[in-house]
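note to self — DONT lose this again. spent like an hour looking for the file last time. sequence + predicted structure for the chain T wanted, 126 res
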Amino acid sequence: MGWRKRVLSFKYAFQGIKILYQTQPNFIIHSVLGSLAILLAILLKLSYFEWLVLIVTITLVLFAEAINSALEFLTDLISPDLHPLAGKAKDVAAAAVLITAIGAVVVGLFLFLPKLLDVVKTLYTR
């Protein structure tokens, strides 16, 4: 593949991200929540391994949301009329996002809750 095609592939990928932000409110919500988690991670001074887990988790949620959106666009193209199988495809894709989001909450609890409890304990023992 030539350099021009490689550059264009990045252009199309960034166009896809732009489409997600322009058309998918849930992608924006997940991005904001991921950014808040990163801010909290900075404030709580997460370890290298904790950062790794956090970044992978955020990436998985955003990835699931992007795949869900792509499947919804494709389903709408293939089946513009309501069809039970099209609805099932969309529901299962949405379930994938929900599963990753629930997993992200669990990861967040494991990463942040002990550190937040330590902060609260420190504040009350002064």
